[in-house]
## 1
Amino acid sequence: MSKTVLNLVMTFDGFVAGEHDEMDWLHKIHKRPTGSAKWDLSTFTSQVGAIIVGRRSYELGIAQGWFKNEAYGPSPIFVLCESVPANLSHDADFRFVSTGIQDAHRQASETAGDKWIYLFGGPNVFQQFLNEDLVDEMRITIAPILIGKGIRLFHNLTKRHIELEKINVTDHPNGMIETNYRIMK
Ligand SMILES: NC(=O)c1ccc[n+]([C@@H]2O[C@H](COP(=O)([O-])OP(=O)(O)OC[C@H]3O[C@@H](n4cnc5c(N)ncnc54)[C@H](OP(=O)(O)O)[C@@H]3O)[C@@H](O)[C@H]2O)c1
């Protein structure tokens, strides 16, 4: 049975991007002289059998080449969308799902088998998965920077409390803190 794991980078004040989708804050951290330990995903992606991404992250990603050269591993990428985009990219094995999150999750589970489902985000898709109890684990890398405003990761949550159990925390020389929490159900 596969598990569904959110994995992304968030600013210390809780944003995954600036107001206009800026990721310059992350590049700034990666440029720090102590920054040899970048956000290395290869150990994680070797365990992954399917990826789920929202339409906005897909569009931004193909515009900026994020998905090229199996940057997130070789797994098929399920794109949640209202309708199949006109702009079809061949940067990865994209599969478009316009039948809702439960169906996207079912298709990804079937594809992943015993491997994990990598919930890529963005927040819109993540919040729906969280509200439907479809997330098992969160791997959130906290970037040591404040940006004040932007796209919040934790927003529109329908439950008053969601309890977490710590699995692991790793700190990196560039100030990034990788947190790994299980969602208690
Ligand atoms: N820091 C990080 O590590 C990280 C990681 C990932 C993303 N991000 C950032 O997150 C931002 C994008 O996140 P976002 O929350 O705005 O958008 P998103 O979750 O990437 O995509 C949302 C879109 O997905 C489609 N969608 C979502 N749920 C759906 C459903 N149930 N049925 C059908 N379609 C559905 C809709 O698109 P349509 O209606 O157009 O079809 C919706 O507008 C970007 O700035 C990106 O850079 C950051």
## 2
Amino acid sequence: MSSPSFCRTVLLASILSLVGLTAVAAAQEAHRPHWAYEGKEGPKEWGNLDASYAACSIGHTQSPIDIKDARKADLPTLKFDYHAVPLNIIDNGHTIQVNYAPGSTLKVGERIYTLKQFHFHHPSEEHVDGKTLRLVAHLVHADADGHLAVVAVLFELGSANPLIDTLWTNIPSEKEKPQDIPSVSIQVQDLLPDERDYFTYAGSLTTPPCSEGVSWFVLKSYATVSPQQVAAFAKIYPMNARPIQPTNGREILQSK
Ligand SMILES: [Zn+2]
């Protein structure tokens, strides 16, 4: 049995270590070098900018890839259980990102992932049969053990997407300052096409630190975006897509 003072000491020690760890993590985050989509800090150099970015150059299962020759397989259905949340949006200097309040999940087989955030790339990072699309949304999820799963929704030109209208209207004027906009409720489901067939492969984050072990689910059907919506994004981010990475023999599967 432990005495109350022992408990207090342990508690204090854990609080201090938590604070310490958080401070260290924050300091590391602050010192992570800047990276970009072109020039001296562009994709070819990412792996050399910081030791923690090494996977960007030495990794063998990097994303994005060109999706082709996918083998048909009996794959589990993607079960989305997404809820409407108040908007929290940030222009993080690399993309427009929406941080999603907890409670929305994606179930794949027995694995349950929680949606953390979604963001956009223009043009699409992933290619399909060598073709790039105008825009892609990446819906980033994590399971309880920290495994990441990203759902990619590709957009072709067509009618305007109402959720994108809402998002673009609320892009913060200042970079790197997340904005809580409680008066605006959003439902990420509104980005998804009706058909949920998908391609899947093992890849990585497409931005530094390019961490591997990410399960990718690229929806086969496209959503639509209007030329005006693409142009509005391109005004802020004319090109925020990492080049295609070698597949290195990875198998790409597709749901039947
Ligand atoms: Zn992305």
